[in-house]
Amino acid sequence: VKLGEPYLVDRIPETDQDLLSFLVKQNILPGTTIVVVEAALYQGVVTITIGDKPLVIGSQVASRIWVRSEV
Question: Nearest CA to 57 among 45, 65, 67, 66?
Fold first, then answer.
C-alpha cells in the first residue's frame, strides 16, 4: 500500500477470535476506509487512521487485513 492513500477494508481474518474481537472494537471492518500514515516495519508497527482517529497496530496484524484501493 502507498502511504497517505485511502483504502477500503476488504476482508479481515475470521478464524482468530482474539484478533477478530480487536478489529471489531477498533472498527476495522469490511467497508471501512483506512489510511496508512506510517509503516515503521523496523519497529514492527503500522500507524493507520480511521476517520480522524489514529491507531497503531502491529505489522503482523496489519498483514492480515486485506484492503483494496478506493478508486
Answer: 45
pLDDT tens-digit map of 18-57: 999 999 999 999 999 999 999 998 899 999 999 999 999 9
Measure the CA–CA gap between 64 and 27, rounded to whole angstroms: 15
Three-point CA angle 11, 45, 47, nearest 5°? 70
pLDDT at 4: 95
Q: Which three cell numbers stand for residue 4?
A: 497517505
Unique residue bearing C-alpha cell 478508486: 71
**Residue 58 and residue 2: Cα distance in Å, rounded?**
17
**Share of the chain residues as helix, strand and coil, in percent rounded to the nearest 5:** 20, 40, 40
Beta strands in the chain (DSSP E): 6-11, 33-40, 45-50, 53-58, 66-69
